[in-house]
Amino acid sequence: VQLQASGGGLVQAGGSLRLSCVASGRTFGRYGWFRQAPGKEREFVASNIWRGGSAYYSDSVKGRFIIFRSNADNTLYLQMNSLKPEDTAVYFCAATGGAYTRTDYISLSSSYEYWGQGTQVTVSS
User: Fold this and answer.
1) What are the DSSP calls for 77-102, one per residue?
2) What is the pLDDT of residue 101?
3) 16 with 81: CB under 8 angstroms?
4) pLDDT at 120 over 90
5) pLDDT interval class at 85 (50, 70, 90)
6) Using CA atoms, how far apart are residues 101 and 80, in angstroms rounded to an integer?
7) Is residue 102 within 8 Å of 86, Cβ to Cβ?
8) What is the largest CA-CA distance in the chain?
9) Which one, 5, 10, 36, 45, has the greatest CB density within 10 A?
């Protein structure tokens, strides 16, 4: 099983970035994105059921970020719009075999068995 993330970079506040994550090796039940800023714990960003459905977002990104997946090539995406300096972090894609639906469970990093290597996003003010 492998998750390979890419797409990070440096962007000005108000700009946009799209992160990608190629998933391979098995079928998954759910996928998500987390982030970790320097000196802080890893935090939940967004998640969705693998087959598609109602996505779930943290309050800090709701209305600005969109999580989705390409059926054609099993690539996971995080479209980030209206970026703010506080969005600066290393972003990780994650996946699990379970199709969990409880929001308190899917927002936990421990609920995901598989992780990408992380990609740096820096938003300048």
Assistant:
1) EEEE-S--GGG-EEEEEEEESS----
2) 85
3) yes
4) yes
5) very high
6) 23
7) no
8) 40
9) 45
